[in-house]
Structure formats: C-alpha cells, structure tokens
C-alpha cells in the first residue's frame, strides 16, 4: 500500500505538470458550461415550447451533458495516451522487472483520473451555481448512481484503449476517434428535447449516451431510466473483462 500510495502521488504530480491535460480535464468543463450560459443568446431564458421542460433554461439541460463530457474527456483523451506513452518509452517493460506489479500503475492512473474528474465536476457545478444559478436535481440519488456507473463503464472503455495503443499519439488518435461521436450521441450539440427521437434511442444504448440520459432523467424527471442503467452495467461487464484479457504490459 505504501508503494501504491507513492506511485499514485507521483502519477498525480506528472498529471499536473501537463498543462494540456490540466486544461481539458479540469478547466474545460467549467469554462464550457459558464461561457455557453453567458455568451450564447437565449441560453439563460426559460423554455416555453418544450413539453416536460417548461420553466427550465437551455443551459440547465446542458448540466448533465457537461458532466458526461467530463467523464468522456478523462476516460478517452488523457488516460489511454499516458499508457501509450509509457509503453512507447519502455516504462512498462522496465517496471515489469521490479518487485512492484505493473498492475499498480494502472490502479494509480485510474485513481488520479477519477480524482481529477471529481474535482472538475465539483468546479463546474460550483461555477454554474455562482454565475448562472443551478437547478437542483429532482432525484439526486439517481444522478449520483448514473454518474458512478458512467465513470465505471467509461473507465473500462479507457482501459481497453490503454491496453492496446502502442504510443501516446495513437492513444490520442483512437481516443478522439471515439470522443466526438460519443459526445454527439450524448447530446452535446442537441441536449434534452432538441435531440431527435432516433438519435436519442441510438444514444441510449451507447456508453456515454446512456450516462447522459440517465443523469438528465435524475436531474429533471421523476422516472427511473432502467434501460440506460442496465446498458451501463452491461458495458461494464463487457469492457472490464476485455481490457483485462488484452492488456499488454510490454
């Protein structure tokens, strides 16, 4: 445990030294949410023609979506690239010759990225509340559950990428190849009632779309998104074993 703690602290320091990673993982969700509310016309005006969402503002609908974006950014754009870089530079190969199991590096990286994600989410919600006002979730327990499941299955997806990419560049490239389609189907461009039914149905069966829809239901609705919750559990049960099976430590 002492070795794991030291390794995690070391990975955390390396994480904070990368200005690009710090910006996109920690700052970007807050910046995006606040700037959208302040700059885009009508984002702070109550909706009048969206059944079930009357009285809410467009910017309110983006809060769960931005939380999903934060999960996706950490899981697909930072974590796999780090492991690709370690594999490219021979760090994993050298670590395998030491008494410290190489799997501890994976645990340390996951811990650092999840902590960074939690910091980013808290910062985004606090900034939103201070600058634009924050609509309280109708079902906070459901939001927390959906958020936790979102972290779990998206981290598993990130582990699959980290298991395969040979270089940092390929980690970034493959991560981005998945990043934007998943964001699109999660509602970054068409949140809530503005998303066409077909896209919403497709998104509900994909990793990030299921998380965004479940958090949105918990924030604004009164039902239980059983399909989305089961989809996230299913993705976790599939992606976790796949990552464990294909992970290369050299």
UniProtKB/TrEMBL annotation:
Record keywords, A-Z: Antibiotic resistance, Cell membrane, Membrane, Transmembrane, Transmembrane helix, Transport
Listed InterPro entries: ABC-2_transporter, ABC2_TM, ABC2_TM_bact-type, ABC_2_transport
Top-level taxon: Bacteria
Pfam families linked: ABC2_membrane
The UniProt record lists the keyword Membrane: yes
GO BP of this protein: response to antibiotic
GO cellular component: ATP-binding cassette (ABC) transporter complex
Family the UniProt entry places it in: Belongs to the ABC-2 integral membrane protein family.
Protein's name according to its UniProt entry: Transport permease protein
Organism: Cellulomonas bogoriensis 69B4 = DSM 16987
